[in-house]
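Before relying on records like the one below, remember that each one covers exactly one chain. Contacts with other chains, cofactors or solvent are not represented anywhere in the record.
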Amino acid sequence: MAAVTAARPVRARRRRPSLWALFWLLAGALYFLVPLYSVAQFSLETGAHRYGFHWYAQIFSDPSFRSSFLLSLRLAVETVAISFVLMVPTVYWVHLRLPKLRPTMDMIAVLPFVVPPVALVVGLSGLFSALPSLLASSQILALMYVILALPFTYRSLDAGMRAIDVKTLTEASQSVGSPGWKTLLFVIVPNIRSAMLSAAFLTLAIVMGEYTISSLLLFNTFAVYIYYIGNTEAYQAAALAIISFVLTWGAMMGIFFVSRLAGGRESVQIGGTR
């Protein structure tokens, strides 16, 4: 009986949160939710003590809303695609062959935090001055957004690469005759899909909320539309604030659920075994 008792696992007791921690949690929730509730209530007002979705219907029926939203969404997809094409092979090669270059990559990845968007616009406009058709096209925004999203894309991919054994996976793939591009596409990418999805959601949030670059280049993106409505229409501006909030938090919750699902199911697969 003593042996059986000793073999039983000992469950760690969970510490109950202190009253002080609960107080700060409640204070933080109120600080965050009370302004949001006020904006939501204001966006629903249609008259004296009357509420409805009239202003939301006006926003969704506005052609400028649809065009600006679709433009930003297309730019987000293009930015994600360009970022992955450039960064996934780069991060993979650094982890596999050039691990000593990782500190340099970390420093390069934080440079967009240092360079102001205005300086970025002026610099790239001068760089592409010989290509006026590119400067007049919205694709120039996607190229600039790749730079803005670089810190988040690199950090997400780097964390995904650190979570797997890149060298062992590559050697196992090469041992069965797979070339380098097949190893990257069919072995490495499936093992970092959660990191790639996190980078995609973060990039989506960045592109949908970016204002400075698009306004300087005179493109009517979703953020520019929000700024214009905020200066002209009060109720529609409140409705747009709620809509943009839902979009941003939808992206953040997408990262959370993807991470939870990947944490429960994803594991490195080598030679058909887990």
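Strands lie at 45-47, 50-51.
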